[in-house]
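Entry for manganese protoporphyrin IX complex. Fields follow.
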Amino acid sequence: AQSRIPQPPALPFIGNVAQLDRELPIQGFALLAQQYGEIYTINILGRKLIFLNTQELANEVSNDAKFRKGVVGSLDEVRYLSGDGLFTAHEDEPNWEIAHRLLMPAFNTLAIRDMMEDMRDICTQLLLKWERFGPDHVIDPSDDLTRVALDTIALCSMSYRLNSFYTENQPPFAAAMTDFLKECHIRSTRPRLVQALMTGTTAKWENDAKFMTDVATRILNERRENAIEKKDLLNTMLYSKDPKTGQGLPDDAIVKNLLTFLIAGHETSSGLMSFMTYYLIKHPETMRKLQTEIDEVLGGQPVQYQDLSKMPYLNAVIRETLRLAPTAPMRLVKPVEDTYLANGKYFVKAGSYLVINTWVYQKDPKVWGEDAQEFRPERMLDGKFDALPPQSWQPFGFGVRGCIGRPFAWQEVSLVMASILQKFELSFVDPTYNLELKQALTVKPKDLYIRARLRDQVP
Ligand code: MNH
């Protein structure tokens, strides 16, 4: 039988926005899911959003033939910088297809393997920093892991050194990126009228975008004048042709995609490493188990590419972290045609906005059981992981618009986390710390501070 999609009571003009936690929308959305169940609709600033909160519904709309990615809200704001680059392209923009076909080979596991040494270069800077500051130094892991992620993607994509470890504050490019993305998030929650009055804020946001575009354009032009022999992503984009049309990417599309990799490829990875740090310190038994695996495989040597396939527990820990704390907490799709969800139960119009709430639905008790909210990497070991109901775990999105950087992120995070845990014993500065969240375009732990002591150092 057909049901109405429940809607919490709305206020005139502003819809449900008053009910939402503006600092931490995922929290508000999770509470509404507890109250209303598998599906509800809310109205935010005149836009009607339908939230899907279970594995069954997420699986149903993970179907490229019937549902297409929607670029709405903060993602639409990011478009000001990255335009029709891969991440923010609308479904029908021709440069998406060309860039997709041209870049897929550059992001596959084999190609990423060649980036191992660049990744190690940046990882070593973090290890040296923590070692030299010593066991009493208070570390903000999100801060240093963001340095790692941003410097790594800049080096691997365009052989550009941001050198974030050599400055006290963020270097100008990193600061522009952080400020820009934060403002994109806030802009998407501001009423239009308020936005129109904030000319200073808007000017800064525009200047940050222009600054980053200028840097990427300069790097592109310099590369054209001085070719280098290296398989970075910039060279791939400069010299490969789309196998289908024989076309190359126009310069402005190359710039937009360079910026895309920096946007999509740093906060998500650094957030994942920060959450993983939290969960491991919080669960000493898991930490011991993982360090034992790492010690056995590495035998005191630096991580090599071939070691990564020999650490199943490391994979399980990364998977479980991404289940409980998917750093890209939701995604949005639109039905191509009018359709019904849940065997005819809910009617949704073509083009309506369906939010797949990854943060909520990856904790669906129907899939994970009563301990769905708990951190238990054992359930993510290969055999069990492969036997899960379809799309139970989807931190990298789905289908043609799924994450192109997944093998890159996996290799980077495995290398960095295994290297850290091989070398250091980590602890909370505040032993009673419990996870709190902060949200911008992605989600990260809030007020998490740790110490890192060399493992062979006597306490
Ligand atoms: Mn990534 C798309 C999550 C790392 C580049 N990424 C997506 C999507 C999710 C996602 C979810 C789909 C978004 C949507 O449907 O609207 N990405 C992640 C996570 C990590 C990550 C959780 C790390 C952990 N991503 C990376 C890295 C890069 C990258 C690293 C680049 C080097 N991601 C992309 C690009 C897209 C994307 C590009 C857009 C792909 C497309 O639409 O064609």
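NOTE: Residues 199-225 form the longest helix (27 residues).
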